[in-house]
Structures are given as structure tokens and as C-alpha cells.
Amino acid sequence: xxxxxxxxxxxxxxxxxxxxxxxxxxxxxxxxxxxxxxxxxxxxxxxxxxxxxxxxxxxxxxxxxxxxxxxxxxxxxxxxxxxxxxxxxxxxxxxxxxxxxxxxxxxxxxxxxxxxxxxxxxxxxxxxxxxxxxxxxxxxxxxxxxxxxxxxxxxxxxxxxxxxxxxxxxxxxxxxxxxxxxxxxxxxxxxxxxxxxxxxxxx
Length: 203
Hints:
The protein is of the alpha+beta class.
């Protein structure tokens, strides 16, 4: 109870109104001794009197208790997750995120009638930079397409809302969508076909 500021607040507000303890006591139908005890933190007003006291001083009950809410706006950040081949992107992209995973992968690429095996370095990169997909777009080679997703974090917790959380990034365009938006998804896939990034039968 020692943290309650009721006595201090009553004393300050009484003096603002230029009232004596006795005058305040008469207004509240209590004794002068009761007001004195409140102001010296020896006792507190009966809980049923709090609305009357707050109304008398034109303050809220929270203010009477000396309580103020320290409001801090929720800071929301996007955390982007992208899988990249370092052969297909400028290494400067590493300045814009944190590598979560790195592995060497053997891939096959057609060269004439043969399949040529090559090794490439693939990474999983995380970034909380604003508009990271558009930053990534500047660093990738033409004709390459990367897909990733983002989660929105508020105070370290995932926020589930209707913001785009899926991303396709290529040199020409950045698509952002949620899979529930079928119309947008179809438009995006058609544009990818027109750009030669995927085949018509892949739709």
C-alpha cells in the first residue's frame, strides 16, 4: 500500500482548490482528522468514497491513485526469409541480412545433350530491413527468380494479419501476396510465363 499516492494527490488538489482540511472534510462528510490521516498516508479513504473525491477534484480515479499508463506504441517489423544461391546474386546482399543456414548443393544443368553437374552455395538469409524484397531485386542476376516469405513481429511475437507474407522477386518485378488471393496469384503466374521464368504448363 505504501506505493499509493492517494494522500499526496488529495493534499495537492486540496491546496489547488485553496481548501483547508476542515473545509474538505465538511464537503465529504468526514472528520478533519480523517483528511489529515489520508494526507499523511496513515490511512486511506473508504473505497466507496473514491468516485466522490475524484469527481470533486475533476480527475479520474487512476489519477487519484497516482497511476499513469506508460504507453509505448507497438513496434512492428517484417522478418524476411529467403533462400538464395550465391551464384545468382551479388554477394553485397549479405550486408542486408543475417545468414541463418549455408550449404553446398550439387545441381545438374543441361549443356547440349548432357547434364553437367555443378556445385553451388545456397544460403537462407533473414532480414528485418524495410522493403528487403526490393533491395534483393537490385542484387539478383537477370532471369533469376527467388521466392520467400515474411512474418510480422510485434514485441518479438508473430502477428497474424492480412498483410502480404509471400514474395517472389526477380529483376523485373516484386510480387507480394497471400495465397488466399487467387486472382492476384493467377496474374502473377501469367506474368512469370510472359517473362520466360516458368512454363505455361507449370501454372
